[in-house]
Specification:
Blueprint: H1 2-34, E1 58-59, E2 71-74, E3 83-91, E4 94-97, E5 100-103, E6 107-113, E7 126-129, E8 137-146, E9 160-163, E10 168-171, E11 174-176, E12 184-189, E13 198-206, E14 213-222, E15 228-232, E16 234-235, E17 238-240, E18 243-248, E19 253-258, E20 261-263, E21 272-280, E22 288-298
Parallel strand pairs: 9-22, 11-22
Antiparallel strand pairs: 1-2, 2-7, 3-6, 3-8, 4-5, 8-9, 10-12, 12-19, 13-14, 13-21, 14-15, 16-17, 17-20, 18-19, 21-22
Length: 300
C-alpha cells in the first residue's frame, strides 16, 4: 500500500516537471539562435609593392592629385548561412606598448549589409574609404554580423595606411599615332615631400567585356635613379620593348622612355592602355604611398 502511494506521488511529480523541462529546452534553443554570431572575418593580406596585381589594403587609384584620395580595403568572405553583413571600424589614435604604437578607440565607420554596394559595383568584401586626409595614418578593424544581430569578434589583423599626395601625370595621354620606329615616353611630376622613396610604373591593358587586367610592363625607379629594374611581360598581341633609357628634367620630374611597341601577330592599334605610377616611401613598405592612373590609345 505504501509502495503504491509512493509510486503515484513520484509519477505525479514526473508529469509536473516534464513540461517545464521541455519549456526550458525550447527557451534555451531560442536564446542560442538569437545570439548566433559569425566567425571573425579576415582581411586579405596586402600584396607586395612589386606584385603584378594589387591585393589587400591600398590607395584608391586617382587620375589627378586634386582628386579625392581614398583607401581601398579588401577582406575574405564569411560563409555563414545567416550572415547579414560586415561592420568596419577605424581610428587614428594609438598608444605606446612594448615599443610599438597600438591602435585604440576604434569607432564604427560603416555598416555594410550584404548587397548594399551593388550599385557601386563593389563586392560585399570590399570598401572604399574616401573620408580620409593625406599624411594621416588610419587603422582599421572588421567584424561580421548575423541576421539575428549577433556580432563577431574583430578581425585579428588591424591594417593601416598613410596616404600621400599623388603625382601629376604628364604623358602619354589621349590618342596618338606611333610609327614603327618611334618610342613612347612616360613622365610625371612629383609633389611628394618625402626625401626618398621608390616610383613604380605599371602598364596594363583591360578587357572591355570582362574588365580583366593584363599587365604589359612593370619598372621600378629608386628616387634619384640610383637603381633601375625592368620587368618585361609579353602578351598575345604585342611586346613592350626593352628599357630604352631615362631622362631627368626639372627638380622633381621623372621620365622613363620605352622603345618601340612591336606587333606580334595582331595589331595593337585602337587598344587603350592604362598606366599607373606608384609612390612608395622608402623604409615604410606597405604603409605609405599613392597611386595615380592615366590612359592612352594608339590610333595607327
Amino acid at each position: 500500500m505504501i509502495n503504491n502511494i509512493t509510486r503515484n506521488i513520484l509519477e505525479r511529480i514526473r508529469l509536473a516537471i516534464l513540461p517545464a523541462a521541455f519549456l526550458v529546452f525550447a527557451v534555451s534553443c531560442t536564446d542560442d539562435e538569437l545570439t548566433s554570431t559569425p566567425s571573425s572575418p579576415q582581411f586579405v593580406e596586402k600584396s607586395s609593392d612589386t606584385a603584378t596585381y594589387d591585393q589587400g589594403i591600398r590607395p584608391i587609384y586617382i587620375s589627378d592629385p586634386e582628386d579625392d584620395a581614398g583607401v581601398y580595403l579588401q577582406w575574405h568572405n564569411n560563409t555563414e548561412k545567416d550572415l547579414e553583413g560586415y561592420k568596419l571600424y577605424r581610428t587614428t589614435e594609438t598608444t605606446p606598448s612594448n615599443g610599438e604604437d597600438v591602435p585604440i578607440n576604434f569607432q564604427l565607420l560603416k555598416t555594410i549589409p550584404l548587397g548594399s554596394q551593388d550599385t557601386k559595383q563593389l563586392p560585399d568584401t570590399a570598401y572604399e574609404d574616401y573620408s580620409v586626409d593625406l599624411n594621416t595614418t588610419y587603422y582599421y578593424r572588421l567584424t561580421a554580423y548575423s541576421s539575428s544581430d549577433g556580432e563577431s569578434l574583430p578581425s585579428s589583423e588591424k591594417p593601416s595606411y598613410y596616404l600621400t599626395a599623388g603625382v601629376t601625370l604628364l604623358e602619354p595621354s589621349g590618342s596618338f599615332s606611333m610609327p614603327e620606329d618611334s618610342s613612347i615616353t612616360f613622365s610625371w611630376q612629383s609633389s611628394v615631400s618625402f626625401s626618398g622613396g621608390t616610383y613604380l610604373l605599371k602598364v596594363y591593358s583591360i578587357d572591355d567585356y570582362t574588365g580583366e587586367e593584363t599587365i604589359v610592363s612593370q619598372t621600378s625607379l629608386v628616387d634619384g635613379f640610383a637603381a633601375l629594374e625592368n620587368i618585361e611581360v609579353t602578351v598575345s598581341y604585342k611586346t613592350l620593348g626593352e628599357f630604352g633609357g631615362y631622362s631627368f628634367s626639372g627638380s622633381n620630374e621623372r621620365t622613363v622612355i620605352y622603345n618601340e611597341l612591336e606587333s606580334s601577330g595582331t595589331s595593337s592599334y585602337g587598344q587603350r592602355y592604362y598606366w599607373r605610377v606608384y609612390f612608395l616611401s622608402s623604409g615604410i613598405d606597405n604603409l605609405v604611398g599613392s597611386i595615380t592612373e592615366g590612359s592612352f590609345e594608339i590610333t595607327n
